[in-house]
């Protein structure tokens, strides 16, 4: 099964504060901005919706309201939370993490550790959704805090070029992409990187 990692440069506290906030204006603004995307997603998940899953907008409403949630349709709340992060942040791009097999994250993490970059791992971007959202196998979710991003960037920039060049080409490109994400966070001291694995 091929996976993809979607990353957002966002203040994680701002995004997290939307969950359970009951903020109707924010919900409507997100719904308006992502109207076409939600329609496409509802078409893609039509079978699940026919079998009782909420539409993407219904899932967004539940996330903003803090529930109620249906455990068996947890994926919809995860994707709704991804829209919240996209609304409050900006997308970070990279070719090394779409598509890939799950084991790829471990290979990149091993390379990071060998280079002395230990403040973050790519594997941690595929864990649980924030509370009170129900657990979903996909999308996975993880956060690199602003402090972790700053520390990881310092570690990345301290890596000697010959060490980086000695890595397998695919792994080196992935590490360099990670470096560009961390550099994008530098001018935004309250922003971290929020990832969604799907």
Describe the structure.
It is a single chain. This protein is an alpha+beta fold and 198 residues long. It has one domain (5-197). The protein is built from 10 helices and 4 strands. The chain has helices at 12-18, 24-33, 35-44, 46-50, 56-65, 74-88, 103-114, 146-157, 161-165, 169-185; strands spanning 5-10, 90-92, 140-144, 192-197. The chain is globular. The model has no long low-confidence stretch (mean pLDDT 95). Residues 1-197 form the DUF7691 domain.
Concise summary:
With 198 residues, the chain is of the alpha+beta class. It has helices at 12-18, 24-33, 35-44, 46-50, 56-65, 74-88, 103-114, 146-157, 161-165, 169-185; strands at 5-10, 90-92, 140-144, 192-197. It starts with a strand and ends with a strand.
Task: For this entry, give a set of tags.
single chain, 198 residues, alpha+beta, 4 strands, DUF7691 domain-containing protein, DUF7691
